[in-house]
Design a protein that fits this description.
heterodimer, A: mainly alpha, B: 331 residues, two-stranded antiparallel sheet, two-stranded antiparallel ribbon, 4 strands, elongated
Chain lengths: 42, 331
């Protein structure tokens, strides 16, 4: 069952990398609410 | 004479007063007492009928907030609040019922000759790694996806709105971010196994004989039988469709507008729910449905008698190549 554990670990690692990248502006507005006004400077 | 004239004058005056009293309201209705400057302007309903959408300009920085009415949204709401739930409930509960019934009638498909003691490699370490990475993502994606469609109605009465909101938020994060390793897994599976998953004449015979699941025959099969090929294409095409439509939703307005995203959500929902229903059958046959099947993805090795029963043509090839311990290839 080593493949199972390594598979799960890889999935968590890749998801964490994706989360870090997206939350640091890799793709602007990713996963945000469509009509969000977050980030608007007045 | 004078009195008769004044009586006629009195009656005439009275009749005139009655006539004026009765006609006044009608006249008042016909002639407006106040002016309505927008009476002749275009009504909202007429606009909607002609343009299918009402939009203008908004002072918010995002110009898309100018969309005021978009009737397609009502169809979409009806779909994801009613139709999708019915499709999902019928597909998943229907599949579970079929599997329970099948197990009660057919039971576990056993290795008829018993275990031989000799084994051969069915899936190497990399194949198993890719399978389990994709499978573990799929399980979380399935649960968090079901939560989006059914969670509010099923969980809120039990755990309350606050706990549900917290759980749903984390489920959504998991759904978004685990989609990346899942998509990678689907792409790797496509590339790894495409060579063995193209339909051949052997598949037609396998299907005609019930695949050894229905009935007692065990028709010959190569590395993957027709049933496994169906699962492969469901994963590749269903996973691909789920990934594409999911990313359209995750990255709004990059590739499509609101209308396109509504369509993407409909496809994503239907594909996801059918995917879950079909994967239940895959999980069943890989665990309690067939003796010796789980080992293929567990240790990676299967018993020779299992391979002879379910994949005889593949076993012959493996023996020919000298890959089966304890069995030497025929000269």
């Amino acid at each position: 069952m080593r493949a199972f554990l390594v598979g799960c670990l890889a999935a968590i690692l890749l998801a964490a990398v994706a989360a870090f990248a997206l939350n640091n502006g890799a793709i602007p507005n990713a996963s945000q609410n469509v009509f969000s006004t977050q980030g608007v400077r007045i | 004479m004078a009195s008769s004239t004044s009586l006629r004058f009195f009656i005439a005056t009275l009749m005139l007063c009655f006539a004026a009293a009765f006609t006044a309201p009608a006249l008042a209705q016909q002639q407006p007492t106040s002016v309505n400057p927008t009476a002749q302007s275009v009504k909202e309903q007429e606009l909607l009928k002609q343009l299918q959408k009402i939009q203008g300009r908004s002072s918010l920085p995002d110009a898309r907030t100018g969309v005021l009415e978009q009737p397609e949204g009502r169809n979409w709401r009806q779909f994801h609040q009613v139709t999708l739930r019915w499709v999902g409930a019928i597909a998943i509960l229907g599949m579970l019922s079929i599997l329970v019934l099948f197990y009660l009638i057919r039971g576990m498909v056993r290795i008829e000759q018993g275990r031989s003691g000799s084994t051969l490699v069915r899936f190497n370490a990399f194949e198993r790694f890719v399978h389990w990475m994709t499978a573990s993502c799929f399980i979380v994606l399935a649960i968090s996806g079901l939560n989006i469609t059914f969670g509010k109605e099923l969980l809120t009465p039990w755990i309350g709105p606050e706990a549900f909101a917290g759980w749903a938020q984390w489920a959504k994060y998991a759904h978004n971010y685990l989609s990346f390793p899942f998509t990678l897994g689907v792409v790797l599976m496509f590339l790894m196994w495409i060579a063995w998953n193209l339909p051949t004449g052997v598949d037609a015979k396998w299907i005609a004989e019930g695949g050894g699941i229905v009935g007692s025959k065990h028709p010959p099969a190569r590395r993957f039988n027709a049933g496994q090929k169906v699962i492969y294409w469901v994963v590749v095409l269903g996973g691909g469709a789920a990934a594409v439509t999911g990313y359209l939703l995750m990255f709004p307005f990059y590739a499509t507008d609101v209308s396109g995203m509504q369509t993407a959500q409909m496809v994503h929902g239907i594909v996801g729910l059918l995917f879950i229903a079909i994967m239940l059958a895959h999980i069943y046959i890989g665990t309690i449905g067939m003796q010796g099947a789980f080992e293929a993805m567990g240790s990676g090795e299967v018993d020779v008698n299992w391979a002879r029963q379910h994949h005889s043509l593949w076993l012959d090839k493996q023996i020919e190549k000298g890959r089966v311990t304890g069995i030497t290839p025929a000269e």
